[in-house]
Structures are given as C-alpha cells and as structure tokens.
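note to self: dont lose this again. the chain is below, predicted strucutre after it. 319 aa total, dont forget to put it in the shared folder this time
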Amino acid sequence: MNLIEVAKEVLRIEGNELLRQADKLGTEIENAVNLIHSIKGKVIITGIGKSGHIGAKIAATLASTGTSSFFLHPTEAMHGDLGMIGKDDLVLAISFSGESDELIKILPHVKRFGVKIIGMTKNLDSSLGKFSDVVLALDIVGEACPLNAAPTTSTTLTLALGDALAVCLMQKRNFKAEDFANFHPGGSLGKRLFVKVKDVMKTQNLPIVSEDVSIKNAIDTMTHGKLGNVLLTNKDGVLVAILSDGDLRRALMDENFNINEQAIKYATKNPKVLDNENILAIDALSIIEEYKIQLLVVLNGGKIAGVLHIHDLTGLGLK
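---
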C-alpha cells in the first residue's frame, strides 16, 4: 500500500468535488445570502455528529466576519435551549441525509416560531429539505473514505459552502479590514489588522541633535539613545539627515576620518520617513524590510513625531 498515493487520492477526490459543486452552484446560494442578510437577529447553526462539528466552525467563521451567529446542539435544544432562538433569528440546519432524528425533531418547533430555515443536505425531498426555505445541496458523487461511509467529502463540501456564505455576506456588507480587526483584537492577527504606527512608535528621549553637531557628540547621543541612529535637524526642528551605526562604520573606514568633523558629512541625507502615524504597524514593517533599514522616522509637518525601530515591530509578532 502506497500511503502517499492514498493521501493524494483523498485530496483529488475532495478537490474535484469542490470544483464540480462550484460549477453546479446556482441561485440557491444567492437566496441563502439574501435571507441571512435580511434578518434582524442571529444565525443559529445546528447539526448532529460530524455535521455539528462543521456547523460549529461555520458559526465561528460567520461571527468573526460580521454575521452574529452561534452553534446550538439539537439535543440541548429539545431540553430547553430552543429558548435561544428568537423570532428575528434564522436557523442553518445541517444533515447530510436530511433525516437525522435529533435535528428533525426540533424543526417543527422552529417553524412554529416563524423562523426561516436554510438546510444543507444531499436530498431536497428529505425531511430537512421539506422544512427548509432554502436548500444548499450536498449532492456529492461519493465520500473519499474507501468504504464510502466516513463523512469526508461531504463534510469538506459543507465547510466550503459555509465559507462561501461568510465571504458573500462580507461582500454584501462591504466588510473591511478595519471591521475584521475589531473582531480580532488579540493575537498576531489582531496586531496585524489593528495596531497602528502611533500605538508603538517611540516619542520620548529621542536621539536628536542639530545638523552641525560633530561626529564625537553624535556618537555620544547614539550611545545613550540606544537606537543605533542619530537624527539630525535644522534650527527649525525639521529632519535633514540620519546618522546610522552603518554610516558611522563606513566613516571610520575613511583614511581622512576626523572625529571632530560634522556628522552630517557621513549621514544619510534623504532618509526614508513616514508622514502618516495612522498607517498599520505591519505596513511600516514592510517598508523597513523593503528598504533594509533599522529605523523609520515618523514626521508631522516635517518635524519628528516619533520613530519606529525594527525591533519594536518584530517584537509584536506581526509576522
């Protein structure tokens, strides 16, 4: 048995089925999206067994992309949790056979509340199909399981259809990166989408000197500033150059080097700067990496508002 080939065949079967379903998809997905978009309440997703596990993931995806949603176990629903479903809500019910006993038992009560139902099932004539206002078909050729028994292709398709619903709803709501960030304030994802330059830039005790300072004094400022750079400004406080530790090393290689010379002789005259402190920190990190620099100066009206060091950004875990 070649296990690598077995694994490849599973991926081929499931991948081909997704492509086949993409070609078959019609107005039912549009109807489902419009129905969800029209409700004032929440989307309650329910299912049993593997369908339930997939349903919980779909609920999480919807909730994180702007559609208020949660998962409700059918058995718990029959023992009091039906009270979680309000008249302004919608139920997305998942059952491959369309006949899962625990699920079918709650549907008459859902309909009694006047709540709309979107069903995911292989059989439009099943009990779930008949209770549903919109049906998203799970009409697969076969499972990837060699016994055609374990839910494999069917659960993959169910998950993908849930993703399709979520993405369509994002488009319909014009859901932006800023909105996504509001739902993901923690972890690296939240930092990538939420943390701005002004939140992390240094504004105090910056290594700033006048443009006519000597290299000797610039080195002293660089040492105490602990940023490996010195910012040179004119009499109006406008940035004119940056002396980096790299600039300093190159200066030391000059046979005519004089420690009492003006630092600006060896400084970078047109340093890369930011004129907007409201851009995302991840975008600032991209600039630093692109230009292979350590320090990015943030300006406000030509004057120094703060600085960003590469270590400040990489330490946030943005990548």
